[in-house]
Specification:
about 40% strand; elongated; about 80 residues; 3 helices
Amino acid sequence: MPFGPWPVTFRRTRGGVSQSKRWALLFACLVTRAIHLEVIEELSSSSFINAWRRFIALRGPVRQVRSDRGTNFVGQLRIFR
């Protein structure tokens, strides 16, 4: 479940401020109610796949996934199968 965007300030200089948008991807365990957040740079399938791989590397394999039908999630369905 991605949510955001939030403006993130990278650096402040005398000439101005460099900002970019970031989103948070929320993973929630339906059994233990544990929460895991991943920060992603854009709402694309490749960003989601990279965040998913980081999540699996930290937390281990997942038996079942429930998600909404967002286009960025539908694009990566073949990886789950």
